[in-house]
Batch of 3 targets.
Target 1
Amino acid sequence: FQVGRPSSFILTPGYEDSVQIIFAPLRPEPFQAFLSLETDDPAQPQYLVPIRGEAIGPKIVVIPDTLHFGWVIVDSTKTLYLTIRNDGKADLLTANHRLEGPDAGDFHFVPPPNVPIPPQGSVMIPVSFRPRSLGRKTASLYIESTDFMNPSVSVVLIGNPTTTGVDDLPRNTGLTLELYPNPVSLSSHGRVALLSRRGGRISVHMTVVDALGRAVRELSKDVQGTDPVILDIAHAGLRAGVYYVRLATVSPEGVVSTVGRLVVSP
């Protein structure tokens, strides 16, 4: 806070004047102070005025912070999805998305639309891995944003090229994604069935994305054991069209994701 106009003046009887206070916060959080007015009033030579203000700003959250592509046959492509969420109280802008690292040329991504992400909104970025040679591949995807406290974030990308059929390789996955009914009518209620063939406790995150890459539905749930887990998709507010449903699980073994295509009819 600071006083923006001359801080002293003379008032004749019956007149009034104003004091300009400038609020220029440097970080998003609440602030408070007191404006001290010293006068020649013998009954009250000092008057304290409380001043409060809250600075708001965007807050970027990237999920997950590591993309594991697993085993991918050389010269074939596998695509995973990255979610950028705004947990702040002001619009978030991202820019200067870039790949860096020793194997950056084996990874590709589609940058999000150049539009602000509103508070509590999110977008998804498709990231592809197309290895050209054998050997473990790594790179980092950097994202700059208007988040004052965290202006640059990075996501680690990891892939393992192979020339062997992927079905013959060990997998860190036990997921089968079923969307039913599909197509689904706006008047009905769609469901997502997550079938886990592994035991133990896992956290499941479901994101429904429209054709423009915007997340329109999100749901998280903790599950235990190997029984099928049913996650409901609420269709209220959706329009007819093609959507992509991404399921990601987090367990002590790592992050696993799978994507399904859902058609919503009028």
Target 2
Amino acid sequence: MKKYVIGMIAGFALAGCATAPQVYQFDNSDVVDAGFSETWDALIEYFSSRNIPIRTIDRSSGVLYAERMGDPGEPAEFLEYADCGTHGLASVASSNMSLNVYVRSESDDRTRVTVTADFSQAVIAVGAYVPHNHRCNSRGTLERLMIERIRAAT
């Protein structure tokens, strides 16, 4: 029993080395010099060419919601887009991303695109069997990249 308690104390002490994710300030919205239809088509092409599953889509309201869940561990691409801090000795079971995109016509040849990305990781603490959800903060990289790719495709 004494070894078990000492092991738990050591585990909690080492897990305490975790750090919180940094908060980033960025603009997640920009205007594309193209009409709504052309911009919407470029958005759909972006998601389909990258095999990102679309969960909800409503062209009439200009809303698209997508999720990519269950990527194992901390793939390098995920960490380019999200800051999850550090987890101490805890291990990452999966990295998850959701995207909410809003497209709104401002004129016949100008369309505003707003991208909101949400990131999280399922983290398993030392000695635990069930992962807990750990929220990450967007770096703004994915939002800017998506808007630029949509702009380039129009």
Target 3
Amino acid sequence: MAASRAPGTVAVPPFIRHTPNQQPFIFAQHDLHYETECGPWFLDITEDLRRLTDESGLAWGQITVFSNHTTAAIRIQENEPLLIEDFKELLRKIAPQERYYRHNDFDIRTVNMGPNEPKNGHSHCQQILLSTSETIPIQAGALQLGPWQSIFLVELDGARQRRVTVTLLGSPGS
């Protein structure tokens, strides 16, 4: 029978837990905060993630990088300036800001409305084609990225404060 808990509560595991063979298991979670520019805009956050991985003491495991927003994405891609410009152009062509979006029609939209609601249907449409998160293996204490791979926070809406949640799971080095 599964354990039950009150609605709206979250069970938080301890930072270090021992596995059945008494090897420690590390769980760490961090929020990173970034001030973005108007989208589409790509911010390389790879070095921040390497630093968190180093500080965690993990030798083997994984890191999950999660955007807490529906108009910002997390992607792994090459950090080459001309390629980034191509990505921006592609996103603008797929979901142009000037197109009609029902999400932006405040005469018919009645849910999830804030006091200064932006007209950002294009940002949501671009984000659904990207991803909210990426998971990267950790081996011998290092992120297992290819030689040209970087991890990006991709802003698809207006400039603002963004939060990225990073979760590290695995075993420490011996």
